């Protein structure tokens, strides 16, 4: 019976030693896992912070671009309403109409080209020599009176 008790105590001692070793290994593994989890949490927090900074910068840039876009829209509207812009648009319409008449109406093209060249020469002469000086001093008559007489 003594041998049985010694055997039992030896087996129990081995079991306790194995239990303690297993417990120490489990605690070591748990602390390793906790450290790893903490490392991953820190990495995730850093990544989220970096992404948040990026999103904030993108939002600021988007807002800045929206403001620039609005400013450009206002500038375009202002430029289109400045004096001379409507006249330029009207001249473009006239030019398109004249081009269509040149193509569609026979006989209009040569007469139009001749009148256009004469007008260009007259316009150039108004900026060269004595004629511009005289035009500044003496107002010129327009053909409005002639047109008015033709209507009557």
Secondary-structure blueprint of this entry?
Blueprint: H1 2-81, H2 85-104, H3 108-125, H4 130-137, H5 144-151
Protein described:
With 152 residues, the chain is mainly alpha-helical. It has 2 domains: 82 residues; 44 residues, no CATH class. It is rod-shaped and about 145 Å long. The protein starts with a helix and ends with a helix.
What labels describe this entry?
rod-shaped; mainly alpha; 152 residues
Derived from helix and strand composition plus strand pairing, the structural class reads mainly alpha
Number of domains: 2
Taking the alpha carbons of the first and last residues, their distance comes to 151 Å
Sheet with most strands = none
Count of extended strands: 0
The number of helical runs is 5
Q: In summary, what is this structure?
A:
Helix content is 88%, strand content 0%. The protein is mainly alpha-helical.
């Amino acid at each position: 019976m003594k041998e049985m008790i010694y055997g039992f105590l030896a087996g129990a001692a081995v079991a306790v030693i194995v239990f303690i070793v297993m417990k120490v290994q489990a605690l070591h593994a748990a602390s390793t896992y906790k450290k790893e989890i903490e490392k991953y949490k820190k990495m995730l927090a850093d990544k989220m912070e970096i992404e948040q900074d990026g999103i904030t910068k993108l939002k600021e840039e988007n807002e800045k671009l929206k403001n620039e876009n609005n400013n450009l829209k206002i500038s375009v509207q202002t430029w289109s309403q400045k004096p001379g812009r409507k006249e330029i648009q009207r001249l473009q319409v006239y030019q398109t109409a004249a081009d269509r008449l040149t193509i569609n109406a026979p006989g209009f093209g040569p007469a139009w080209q001749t009148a256009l060249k004469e007008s260009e020469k007259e316009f150039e002469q108004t900026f060269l020599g004595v004629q511009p000086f005289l035009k500044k001093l003496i107002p010129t008559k327009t053909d409005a009176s002639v047109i008015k007489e033709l209507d009557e």
